[in-house]
Amino acid sequence: MVRRFLLILPLALFLAACAAPAATTEPLPADGSQGTAIEPPVALSDFTMPSSLGRDVSLSELRGKPTLLFFGYTFCPDVCPLTLSEFKRVKEQLGADGEQVNYVFVSVDPERDTPEVLARYVGAFDPAFVGLQGDDATLRRIGKEYGLFYQKSAVEGTSASYLVDHTAASFLIDKDGQLRVVFGYGTPVEGIKAGVERLLAE
Amino acid sequence: MRFRTLFALLVAALSLSACVATAPKITVSDPWVRAATTTGAAEPMAMSTPAAQTTGEAMGGGEGHGAMAGMAPGGNSAAYMTLANPGGDADRLVAATSDVAATVEIHETMMENDVMRMRPVEGGLAIPAGGQVELKPGSYHIMLMGLQRDLAPGETVTLTLTFERAGTVEVTAQVRQP
Fold this sequence. Notes:
Chain A has helices at residues 2-19, 79-94, 115-123, 136-146, 189-201, and strands at residues 36-43, 48-50, 56-58, 67-72, 102-107, 130-133, 150-153, 163-167, 170-173, 178-183. Chain A is of the alpha+beta class. In chain B, strands 1, 2, 3, 4, 5, 6, 7, 8, 9 and 10 form a ten-stranded mixed beta sheet that branches. Chain B is globular and about 55 Å long. The chains are: A alpha+beta, B mainly beta.
């Protein structure tokens, strides 16, 4: 034990002396204005879903670039389209770097959101955005890693067949497929952009 | 009954002759509609249950899916505005219609622990006497369901709002991309 400590001590000193000034990742602001860091990062399970591109897309395919991901459904009145509008603004504000990011909308309502519907929907925000048709089995399998909650419910007083309650956070995944930051709903665009820029700089 | 009708007419006549401003009135400010495209989304018949799936309609066997030439309408948007009630009596937004949507309903979005829930506003949206209610993203909104056409920024959408006391109010809303 003492020996191990002696081994670690010089390493720690070395890190403190040399590495600290060059540290690339300062802690995120405690107020959540730039999201909540996932420490340690979560290596996300791979999944494959039908997509707005007219073919199946896997999460592993998106590696090599950071990914902004949101779970929602096209029937959603404002939270989902507003989040996609924010993604669009993030992309615009990043300029050329905006192309170096994947923007993904995962539907939790596969009945309404077919690949064709998703193509129309996400394409209206940006032609580069990708919509995925989540299915229950896959969403349940991967959901825990994101803290995803979604629930379909028949609601009285509406002509809609059902509504879907769902997590409204956005997720930032690094180029290696690890979950790094969760942005609560309402995180300012600047905060999301700052988070993406950190990962682009890695 | 006859007396009541007569009384109502009398009150109406008096208020009209006395001053138009005393009639129940709702003022609408900054109405806007979120830009959206039709998605072709077909509304499912109901919650998918094994029973529903055995019927032809639920499987999209007859009319519906792809039966129409070109892109079927569908997809949603929402209208937002501030409703002010300068009068001395509370009022209530009970219904809305628009020719751009198959169905228009008054809904509320709620956020709890970062989970979004949307529910219809039961019994209409109350607008307190001398007060105002803001319809805004993440809160109350007029839900436009089953869009009949794309709503592009710069266009306008006509909505007809029905209030319990103030009657119908026509609103012209700008389409905006938030």
